Amino acid sequence: MCLAVPGKVLGVEERNGTRMASVDFGGVVKEVCLEYLPDLQVGEYAIVHVGFALQRLDEESARRTLELFENLGMLQEEFGDPWELAAAEAGATSGPGADGQGTNGHGADGAAAAGEVLR
Fold it and tell me: Would you state the pLDDT for residue 69?
């Protein structure tokens, strides 16, 4: 499922003629295109869908929506576990359990597979 998720702009830069932002989605930071909201500034919130900031949002609405999504498990479904992602990006994998699988139940490459959720 692809959600439109509110996120907070952490930084803005121009890349190859396109304004891009680092956006925090409740602990997961992703790169987002600002083509539809070129005047969005650091500290502001926006609803983001498939990598594009679509609509400015006030902080209270963004926080309530992120909390609701988190309580429903939708952030986990959309972005995966940020700790597993960090481990995957660092090249670490879960140690084998008694069954020879990684501790996440997905085998030695489970952390890498979890990281694919965000790519």
Answer: 79
The whole-angstrom separation of Cα 73 and Cα 33 is: 25
| pLDDT, position 66 | 82
CA angle (117, 88, 77) in 5-degree steps:
25
What is the average per-residue pLDDT within 94-113?
A: 42
Rounded CA-CA distance 81/100 in Å is 22
What are the tokens at 113? 């597979």
> pTM here?
0.60
**HEC sequence for the chain:** CCCCEEEEEEEEEEECCEEEEEEEECCEEEEEECCCCCCCCCCCEEEEECCEEEEEECHHHHHHHHHHHHHCCHHHHHHCCHHHHHHHHHCCCCCECCCCCECCCCCCCHHHHHHHCCC
Q: State the residue for tokens 């929506």.
A: 65
Greatest alpha-carbon pair distance for the chain in Å reads: 53
